[in-house]
Amino acid sequence: MGDSAGVSPCARIPYSRSWAAEPGRSIWNAMYPVELTEPETESESTPEADRVLSWRCEQFSRLGFGLRARLRLARSAADLALARKLVAAGCQLATAERILL
Fold first, then answer.
1. Which of 59, 14, 12 is nearest to 39 (CA)?
2. Has residue 75 been placed in a domain?
3. Which of 21, 48, 49, 97 can bridge 77 by disulfide, Cβ–Cβ 3.0-4.6 Å?
4. pTM for the full model?
5. Which domain holds residue 81?
């Protein structure tokens, strides 16, 4: 398996601008607005961005989403809290993915 054995596929994904909403756009998270920012260039990757992407991917994985779906969701501005509510309410994963994206 090489040197990547035991490493989540999500942890090996480079940062991509597509996972976050547009720069400077406010979204509502909990009860306060959050200003989203991202690196200056698409190819620039920061350790924090990599950790966030990996964490989001892991969270969607724990909800039961397959590899392709969790990668799409982790890279998008999909609301993780809404994803948790949909899955807890019995929403099918394919339907939840369409709602979230």
1. 14
2. yes
3. 21
4. 0.58
5. 8-100
Q: Amino acid letter at 24?
A: G
Contact 101, 74 (CB under 8 A): no
Residues 79 and 100 sit within 8 Å (Cβ to Cβ): yes
Residue 2, in any domain of the structure: no
Q: Which residue has the tokens 């597509």?
A: 18
Tell me the pLDDT tens digit for each residue of 32-90: 444 545 544 555 679 999 999 999 999 999 999 999 999 999 999 999 999 999 999 99
pLDDT above 90 (res 91): yes
Stated as kind and residue range, the H or E segment containing 29 is strand 26-29
Own/partner long-range contacts of 87-93 (Cβ < 8 Å, ≥24 apart): 87/63, 93/63, 93/64, 93/65, 93/66, 93/69
Q: Is residue 1 part of a domain?
A: no
Residue from 83, 82, 77, 45 nearest 61 by CA: 83
Total structural domains within the chain? 1
Report, as an integer, the average pLDDT of 9-36.
Answer: 45
- The residue whose two tokens read 């959050």 is 34
